[in-house]
Design brief:
With 268 residues, this protein is an alpha+beta fold. It is built from 10 helices and 5 strands, in the order ααααααββββααβαα. A hairpin with a 2-residue loop joins strand 3 and strand 4. Helix 4 packs across helix 5.
């Protein structure tokens, strides 16, 4: 009669777990039921928060049941028996080991499925954002794109043609004397399989010839996408021609001869 509710609930394991049998019979049963008989009840996978809230609701129902049936003239054994009945009536039995393993497996499966769906949704958004940045072909049949490399910036227009490349109003062979620079510009065109089917008109400024050639390559690769986006875009991405290379020469520091080099140090 003098027991507090917290003390009453503290003896739950002794009197009510597991339902229908003692702890040892529960452990000996491979599937969890007493006398090796499985519990024939459906179960559903719930999150930890849902399980916590459900447990609190069950405890509140058990408390209400005890308050409804408890009387002043009950002794300690009767109170414990009442608590045991409240637990059995309001709190569901503990799942069998087989059910717990199945619930854990389903949780992992659902989590993996959710991760896959979230990753697919993320990739879809990235792809949609990338497609939104693809240049459009104007009424003159031109696709415009901006290419960058180091400190060079190139404005590039690509149209269907016969393979002419004009840079700063000069023919490419006149502007770029080195073959390596010409190969840089023609690299995206060569990936299409028909490099002589497009004309390129570009203006470029800043940096040196190597940076300018790579900036034009960057712009050409972007401007080629709208002509056959399903074919050209994966090719350009595979060779990373659509990726802006932001590497630049590190600035010189005051008190040093170069960016990292130091003057010889003398102690005295």
């Amino acid at each position: 009669r003098g027991l507090q509710l917290g003390q009453v609930f503290g003896v739950r394991g002794k009197f009510t777990w597991p339902p229908g049998g003692d702890v040892m019979s529960k452990l000996k049963s491979p599937i969890g039921g007493p006398n090796d008989e499985p519990f024939d009840r459906p179960f559903e996978v719930k999150t930890d928060e849902e399980q916590r809230l459900e447990g609190l609701e069950n405890i509140e129902r058990a408390k209400a049941y005890i308050k409804e049936h408890i009387t002043e003239d009950m002794n300690e054994d009767q109170i414990r028996h009442l608590v045991s009945r409240a637990m059995e009536a309001c709190i569901p039995p503990v799942p069998s080991w087989q059910e717990m393993f199945m619930m854990e497996a389903q949780k992992k499966t659902l989590k993996k499925k959710g991760d896959v769906e979230a990753n697919e949704e993320k990739q879809k958004k990235i792809q949609e954002a990338g497609l939104a940045r693809v240049p459009k072909i104007d009424e003159f049949g031109r696709a415009y794109a901006t290419g960058r490399r180091k400190t060079s910036v190139a404005r590039v227009w690509v149209t269907e043609g016969t393979g002419n490349v004009i840079v700063n109003r000069k023919m490419m062979v006149d502007y770029f004397a080195r073959m390596a620079h010409r190969e840089e510009i023609f690299a995206p065109l060569r990936l299409t399989g028909k490099p002589l089917s497009f004309d390129v008109w570009a203006t470029v400024k800043g940096g040196g010839l190597s940076g300018q050639a790579q900036a034009i390559r960057h712009g050409v690769a972007q401007a080629l996408q709208p002509f056959d986006i399903e074919t050209y875009r994966p090719l350009m991405k595979r060779f990373k021609y659509l990726t802006y290379d932001a590497r630049q020469v590190e600035r010189k520091k005051p008190g040093q001869p170069k960016a990292r080099k130091k003057f010889q140090w003398v102690k005295r």
